[in-house]
Design a protein that fits this description.
This protein is mostly helical. Helix content is about 65%, strand content about 0%. The protein contains 10 helices and no strands. The two termini are about 30 Å apart.
């Protein structure tokens, strides 16, 4: 998400109240776990999400389906927070190259686990995990910063990122949602009114395609952010996503 990405204090003016970056990361991870349980336990083992009853009617209102819907919607809150932390991390990292390479490394490691857990073998190029969406988004905003004042070059960076995410079918990358959201968060980070209009509006539009309308609520903890780093546990947060997928996949294999 980087769900695990904020590496230093932020561009937000520090406040004496609110929540720190580390608290935001913990909240995002908790939301993410709901989504992963939905994907790798409920939909994979508890029921067939596309199944119909014997008489052809939908089972969509059964308890497992309702529980899955709740978990799915809660899981959607994680992504906007991860995008926000990605922007903050990029703004204050001491070494942007190491930042990019670290995210690339974990994206590749995660992809192996992600593909196996999704039943696609060791390597599947038609569907990529969300860390690739974050990686591409990071490259886009780094490019936008590098070409500050050159609107044409910035537009090329943005559309190249959108195309890369859409072409690779990266999670949250459909129609460029992840890249556009991250770019909006970066370009409006010092304009709170625009930040709180552009991000939620894009999320509403994207929910037509991805169903994550509840992700709007993610902007509440984001706005409570106090600009403070909190405790440092970068490697731990980088590891949460792939380790969680692996554990849930093993639970599914053993108990279902």
């Amino acid at each position: 998400m980087d769900y695990f990405l904020s590496e230093a204090d932020t561009s937000v003016q520090k406040k004496n109240f609110g929540i720190s970056a580390s608290t935001l990361k913990i909240a995002a991870v908790i939301f993410m776990l709901f989504g992963l349980v939905s994907a790798y336990i409920l939909e994979t083992h508890v029921f067939d999400v596309t199944a119909l009853t014997a008489d052809g009617s939908s089972e969509g209102f059964s308890l497992p389906h309702i529980l899955d819907l709740i978990f799915f919607l809660i899981g959607g809150l994680a992504f906007p927070i991860f995008c926000f932390l990605l922007v903050e991390g990029m703004e204050h990292t001491s070494d942007i190259r190491k930042y990019i390479l670290r995210l690339l490394l974990f994206a590749i490691i995660t992809e192996v686990i992600y593909d196996i857990a999704n039943g696609n073998g060791w390597l599947y190029f038609k569907d990529q995990n969300v860390m690739f969406t974050l990686l591409i988004s990071l490259l886009v905003i780094v490019g936008i910063r590098k070409f500050s004042g050159n609107l044409l070059a910035q537009a090329v960076c943005l559309f190249a990122g959108i195309f890369a995410c859409h072409l690779s079918n990266a999670d949250f990358g459909t129609l460029g949602y992840g890249v556009i959201l991250t770019t909006l968060m970066y370009t409006t980070r010092e304009k709170k009114l625009f930040f709180n209009i552009a991000g939620p509006l894009l999320t509403i539009l994207a929910s037509i395609f991805n169903g994550y309308l509840l992700a709007l609520l993610a902007f509440i903890p984001i706005n409570l952010y106090n600009g403070k780093r909190g405790f440092k546990c970068t490697c731990l947060f980088y590891s949460v996503y792939p380790v969680s997928i692996l554990i849930l996949h093993l639970i599914g294999m053993i108990f279902f």
